[in-house]
# Entry
Amino acid sequence: TGGDSTMRKKKKDFLFTFGAKDHKEPLTYIEVTHVLPSRSKRRPLVITGPKNFGGACVRKRILQEFPEKYFLPVRHTTNPGADGCKVCTKKEFTAMIKQNELIEYTKSGGFYYGTSYQSVRELIVTGKTCILDVHPQYLPALC
# Structure
């Protein structure tokens, strides 16, 4: 049908544009539709944008509006004083980086912080939808 071929073409153009080496500007949006996957095939809700675009506010609002549906993955950190995070040593954290076990990570105030694939999988297996607020540079790690 005409509608199906249009959707496939849009997706193909998006993938080509995203992967193009000579593309100078990032895409500003992509059309999305609401699809409810099966419990075993849930995908994270990814919030991304430039620094200070308000992703934390969007994430907070979603969690307030739908507390039974959306959840945050447990983050890993080397900061022993961080609340709600799984604390590990610097050696363990750098090993996770080398073994590509982290979707994203950053260093702030002398401590490492990151989100592991395993913490996202643990939510998906239980049928929960995970929210990720990541910098655009980490999007390829989610594909």
Observations:
- The CA atoms of residues 46 and 53 lie 14 Å apart.
